[in-house]
């Protein structure tokens, strides 16, 4: 895992991090990791897999509608990848 050193934190920020970590019942290091992860995560974003799974659960397809997908689906076997 990568490491990061943050220098020149003000006493106020350091104290606030210590208090926040204590409130969440974790170390300051774990708290900073959680803050950084939250900061770079897309806000309210859904991942494609989650979105597709939700759409599949909500769709109420009849047998005829489902058969259309089977007719147009590409059934060609995938090729193995060569890294040579």
What is this structure, in a nutshell?
With 84 residues, the protein is an all-alpha fold. The chain has helices spanning 11-23, 28-40, 48-58, 63-72.
Task: Present the secondary structure layout.
Layout: H1 11-23, H2 28-40, H3 48-58, H4 63-72
Helix pairs in contact: 1-2
Task: Write up what this structure looks like.
With 84 residues, the chain is mostly helical. It has a domain of 30 residues. Helix 1 crosses helix 2. Helix content is 56%, strand content 0%. The longest helix has 13 residues. The model has no long low-confidence stretch (mean pLDDT 87). The protein is elongated, with a radius of gyration of 24 Å.
The low-confidence runs, each spanning 5 or more residues with pLDDT under 50, are none
CA radius of gyration is 24 Å
| Mean pLDDT across residues | 87
Structural class comes to mainly alpha
Helix content: 55-70%
Name the shape in a single word.
elongated
Give the oligomer, counting copies of the same chain as homo and different chains as hetero: single chain
Kindly list the characteristics that best describe this protein:
single chain, 84 residues, mainly alpha
């Amino acid at each position: 895992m990568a490491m990061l050193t943050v220098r020149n934190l003000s006493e106020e920020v350091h104290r606030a991090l210590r208090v926040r970590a204590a409130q969440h019942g974790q170390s300051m290091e774990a708290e900073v990791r959680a803050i950084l992860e939250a900061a770079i995560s897309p806000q309210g974003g859904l991942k494609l897999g989650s979105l597709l799974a939700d759409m599949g659960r909500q769709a109420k397809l009849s047998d005829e509608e489902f058969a259309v997908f089977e007719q147009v689906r590409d059934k060609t076997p995938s090729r193995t990848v060569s890294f040579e």
